[in-house]
Amino acid sequence: MKQAVDPSTWKKILSEIQKKVTDVSYRTWFLPFRPIEMDPDTGSFVIAAADQMRINMISMHYLPVLNDAVSSVCKGKYKVTMKLMNEEEMSDAAEAAAGHKKNTLKPAPAGALKQEFFLNPRYDFDNFIVGPNNNYAHAVCLAVAETPARVYNPVFIYGGSGLGKTHLMHAIGNFIQKKNPKMKVLYVSSEMFTSEFIEATREARQSNAKINALKTKYRTVDVLLIDDIQFIEGKEGTQNEFFHTFNTLYELEKQIVITSDRHPSKLTDLDERLTSRFQWNIVADIQPPDFETRVAILRNKAEQQGAELDDVMLKIIDLIAEKVKFNIRELESALTRVIAFKVLLKKNLTVEMAKQQLPDIFDPRDVSITCETIKQTVCRKYNVKPSDIESKKRKREITRPRQIAMYLTRELTDMSLPKIGESFGGRDHTTVLHACDKIAGEMKTSSATAEEIKALMNELQ
Ligand code: ADP
Ligand code: MG
Questions:
Q1: Which pTM value belongs to this model?
Q2: pLDDT in tens, 398-410
Q3: Beta carbon of 166 within 6 Å of any ligand 1 atom
Q4: In the chain, helix, strand, coil percent, each to 5?
Q5: Ligand 1: which of 127, 328, 332 to mutate, most ligand atoms within 8 Å of CB?
Q6: Nearest protein CA to atom 18 of ligand 1, as residue
Q7: How far apart are CA 215 and CA 301, in angstroms?
Q8: Whether the bond into 154 is cis, omega within 30 of 0
Q9: For residue 433, how far is its CA from the centre of ligand 1 (angstroms)?
């Protein structure tokens, strides 16, 4: 019988995988997958991702790891199938699977939802890069973490998606928890708050136990961190519950931190009593980071992921930072993809290769001609191997294509002579210069050569 995959099961599977692969591969390839359904009778286990590259990568390199992890956690012989789905399709499919389950099996254990409340230890103040775009919000959050409910209360942080609001929330929570483990810190997304409230209300027809438990849970904390409050816009019941929660905590002088994608005054579908309370004390915004901050964030991330900050990596970081301006999540994801690619690559990463890995950021049509493509094209035309071109062989069948490839590299890329020499089997720059002069000279005296080279150039461009 098909059924939904319990979130805790998926979490266990992921941690099995995490033991077997590098951290970068784990995060790049596995983490974005979502479990869709499983069937203990047939051993089928379906997961989905939103891009084909990830699916290809897993099927080429990691399928056994995945099958083993699922089989060991689910205690049976399972075979994993991967599907390409967008976010919406994933939710629909997972819901449909949950539907099967509801009809036949007991409901998912309540604990399954718990992970929403966990503080993510990866988000702390130490790895939050401060720039002119977020220094105010950062300072406020740090002050709150150091002295909860004493300096600023309530605190309202707003800014666009992927700019670090959730990171700061968890940083506050982690900081307080570490310094003062007795303090009750509760992080919750507004979505979770809403669904808990709705569930409790539904049960309230039979018993008030759940709604009372919920009230107790939220009204007895020392610090309430509630994320993405815009989610409760238009939801009156939830707003009302939150209003009372807010008032109780505020009167008890407990810390409240709220985030939103907009300034309180722009939350037009929210009760005015709430939006005005949100502005009682501190309202801080986070803006998109400037270029220097983006570079600093990327360098920091690269180091965290264990990537060496060599010249090529620094250049790639600059290029990504130039292109991705408004969302740090996207900024990070581009870098992570490059680092993962670098890890899998058996040879040195070049800037061009990195660009090719990020077609969503660097338009493939903009990708300039590389020495590699020139070598490939020339080799194909003259029927020689790239390794020959890079070798010391001096037969004319090889020296001529080699010289032509050098000439084209000089003409079509911005590589320096020594660099060209280097990528042609470690030759001296004078050799490159000689080759270029020789071909240029030939083109002047022989129209056949001129045509030949022109045809190659056309093909390359
Ligand atoms: P939001 O909640 O505003 O949508 P998140 O807090 O989820 O954004 O941040 C998205 C990603 O960007 C996270 O991985 C976070 O760690 C990272 N991030 C955001 N701001 C910074 C920063 N200033 N320094 C380092 N990482 C950051
Ligand atoms: Mg967030």
A1: 0.62
A2: 999 999 999 999 9
A3: yes
A4: 60, 10, 30
A5: 328
A6: 164
A7: 40
A8: yes
A9: 49
Q: At residue 234, what is the residue type?
A: G
With a 6 Å cutoff on the Cβ, whether 161 touches ligand 1 is yes
- Report the nearest atom of ligand 1 relative to the CA of 163: 3
Distance 198 CA to ligand 2 centre (A): 22
Residues 387, 391, 394, 400, CA torsion sign: positive
Query: How remote is the CA of residue 159 from the centroid of ligand 1, in Å?
Result: 11
Cβ atoms of 40 and 74 closer than 8 Å: yes
Please tell me the distance between residue 130's alpha carbon and the centre of ligand 1 in angstroms.
Answer: 11
Task: Report the alpha-carbon distance of residue 204 to residue 208 in Å, rounded.
Answer: 5
Q: Where are the beta strands (DSSP E) in 313-373?
A: none
Contact 65, 37 (CB under 8 A): no
Measured from the CB, is residue 17 less than 6 Å from ligand 1? no
Q: What tokens appear for 101 in the block? A: 């389950």
Q: What are phi and psi of 284, to 5 degrees?
A: -125, 140
- Count CA within 13 A, CB hemisphere, residue 196: 23
Per residue in 222-264, pLDDT tens? 999 999 999 999 999 999 999 999 999 999 999 999 999 999 9
Q: With 50 as the cut, is the pLDDT of residue 343 above it?
A: yes
Q: What domains, with CATH codes, occur in the chain?
A: 7-102 (3.30.300.180), 135-286 (3.40.50.300), 297-357 (1.10.8), 371-460 (1.10.1750.10)
Atom 26 of ligand 1, residue of closest alpha carbon: 128
Please give the number of the atom of ligand 1 that sits closest to the Cα of 160. 3
Q: Could you tell me the CA-to-CA distances from 191 to 3, 201, 204, 242 in Å, in that order?
A: 24, 15, 20, 12
Residue 345 CB neighbour total at 10 angstroms: 13
- Listed in sequence order, the residues at least 6 apart from 309 whose beta carbon sits closer than 8 Å to its beta carbon are 299, 302, 303, 317
Q: Which ligand is nearest to the CA of 122?
A: 1
